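Below: protein 1.
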Amino acid sequence: MSLITKEEQLQVDGLIEKLPELVEEAKYDELYGYQLDPKGDFYDEEVTKTLVIKFLRANKFDLELAKTQLSKTLKWRKEFNPLSAGFSEDHDEKFDIISYITWYEKNSSNEKVVTFNVYGNVTNPKDIFGDLDKFLRWRIGIMEKSIQILNFKDPDNSSMVQLHDYKKLSFLKMDPDVKNGSKATITIFQDYYPELLSEKFFVNIPTILSWVYLFVSRFVSEETRKKFKVLGNGTDVAKYLGDQIPKEYGGKSKQSLKEQRFDFDNSNKEFQLSEYAAFLLSKQFTEELD
């Protein structure tokens, strides 16, 4: 993350000063597993500054716009409960063939957490996208899991990469269920997860599927579009993400994408939920038992 100017720092300080007001208004103080209430037992000033800067960057350091977006995000998180979607709820195994969260420790700055979304594995769009609520809770859960591997105190691992692979895609037209699911997901990420992506790859897109990229581009900001990379050949991905990725993407790893999937229970990388996320999930579990 690039350094900020003195003028931008003033906006950062201003938004941090507004946090108690925003928390009180939303009646909610959690953002990506971290506490935003400065008086809270789990408050981390360094993490909060990183998160505040993301909202400001997404709004070109306009304090009022960033404040509005953050306020809406807190209210949405209170209602949707994305932490539960990521770490408490059981999702249908049919989704497992689509998304693969991976961790590449040796990769360049902010390319260590990579989520592969292999839509070419989808043979029945209605089965995946037909129930919008189930699809969104699963998809947002994947995002929340990816975020927990990030480190908002480390500028080299404070954002992630997403890759969408359309090889062997079986549906050549925009199915209504696919359209609804895709639009809803894009809107949620754009509105409530600003500046968490360093790059977004669209790979193995033949000309006949150019509508995929055009559709996605319609619903994101210009700054987000600048992070898009469209690759006709999936093996070119290694030119950007290095040799640790699977051979099908041009890497040298002997492991398949499935074998590289990040195991949150048995990972070589020391992983644990943020303290506040663990506290909130434990509290929710206890309340449900009562």
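Below: protein 2.
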Amino acid sequence: MSFDSDIAIDRRRTRRHLKWWRLVSVIAITALLIVAFAENSNVFTRSHIARISVSGIIVESQFRARTLRRIAANKKIKALIVHINSPGGTVVGGESLYLDLRAVAAKKPVIAVMGTLAASGGYMAALGADHILAREGTVTGSIGVILQSTDVTGLLGKLGIKAEAIKSAPLKAVPSPFEPLTQKGRIAARTVVMDMYGQFVGMVAKRRDMSLVKARKLADGRIFTGRQALKLGLIDGIGGETQARIWLTKSRDLAAKLPLKDVRTTRESDGPFDFFRQMMGKTLFSERLTLDGLISLWQPE
């Protein structure tokens, strides 16, 4: 009988342990679900200021566009601070970012803080903000558009290689590295460049409240320091994030103690193969040479 009693006691003890671990498991799973829900909703998020970073070459990004749409729709986000450190990128990349920032600005204040470099398409993106700040030594400006092509026909000729193309029209695939640029091709390409240049100048004139004549005078491709840009009316002030917070408090009546929350606008690495691809791309080719289409990029020689 004593043996049977011991077995019964062990069984009761085992059942109690199982109940305990089931309870712990339920609590742990519930906690994980709450955390996951909180990360993807506004229920447990208090009012704050969102902060994003735009760095490197600017290209079109659906992920970034979706993120900015969410920022615009999130009522808990009271303002957006955009840190920019970029030489520019594709015209479409800068244009799309500009438009996305304007969409956010329709709902809440947007302020751009330009860092070491915010030139060309980087400055175009900054134009989407309600207020632009830069450091005195920030390199900005370089307002313009460029379309580049390399003529390798001479090199191919020395190697005994001749490239041929059958085209539907003379201006198809112009400019091309495999044929000399004709006068008609040069005119056609320049027409496209100047059309996009006119768009850029118009954006500067509209957002900086200056005449097209003045904007075009500043848009000769030259770069400016932050100090020069302030005097020329291309930015609103000198400073960084501290000055941005002060402006939001004084001009938009936002609480000075609102917390900042970083928001990613780029995807994280997909894994080792993505890392290897990026490393190979940066090692074998200049990043700017992989851009397609018209580019608005500061390229110091």
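The first strand starts at residue 48 and ends at 58.
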